[in-house]
Amino acid sequence: MTLVQVAKTQKLLKILIGAAWIDGVIEPAERQYLHKVARELNLAQDPEIKALLSEIKSVTAQECYQWLDEYTKENRNIQDYNDLLEKISGLIYSDGYVDVRETQLIERLQLCDPSLQSCTPIWDQVLGKIQQLYKSAVMKKT
After folding, report:
1. Which of 11, 45, 16, 48 is nearest to 32 (CA)?
2. How far apart are CA 99 and CA 86, in angstroms?
3. 59: nearest Cα among 107, 27, 19
């Protein structure tokens, strides 16, 4: 595996770990799933991943979303998107309960579909358009 591929799989696993923390607690089934995926990706002994899997420090929702945005901007192909969607879905459904925050994460991921223009939430896009209209209206008056 190349260094680029290792970095990509590390980011994917970090997103999964962040997704497990998104509701504030890692459930036993989620923990088991994360360790299984870490072994499958040959990252169980990676120092950064190992530290995150230790659960000594929680991952904030903000960190998780930041990692998600970075990953999806860097990996704009359908295979990487589907792999991430499959792994996050597996994690979220592993404990038999889907929290609202987990649903929001899946919705955000769906906005990152490579067939879309960007991973920016629709409200951010709408706000951007309103700001553009406002600026052009102000420019016309001056």
Report:
1. 16
2. 17
3. 19
Residue 46's Cβ-side half-sphere holds a number of Cα atoms within 13 Å equal to 20
Evaluate if residue 78 carries a pLDDT over 80.
yes
Q: What pLDDT does 136 receive?
A: 65
* Residue-level pLDDT at 4: 85
Is the pLDDT at 116 greater than 90, yes or no?
Answer: no
What distance in Å separates the CA atoms of residue 96 and residue 38, rounded to the nearest whole number? Answer: 21
Identity at 86, one-letter amino acid code: E
Per-residue pLDDT, 111: 82
Q: Report the C-alpha gap between 103 and 45 in whole angstroms.
A: 30
- CA–CA distance from 99 to each of 92, 96, 127 (Å)? 8, 10, 28
3-state secondary structure of 58: coil
Look up the pTM and report it.
0.79
- Domains of the chain in sequence order: 3-141 (1.10.3680)
| Contact criterion met (CB below 8 Å) for 48 and 98 | no
- Nearest 5°: CA angle at 106, between 52 and 1? 50
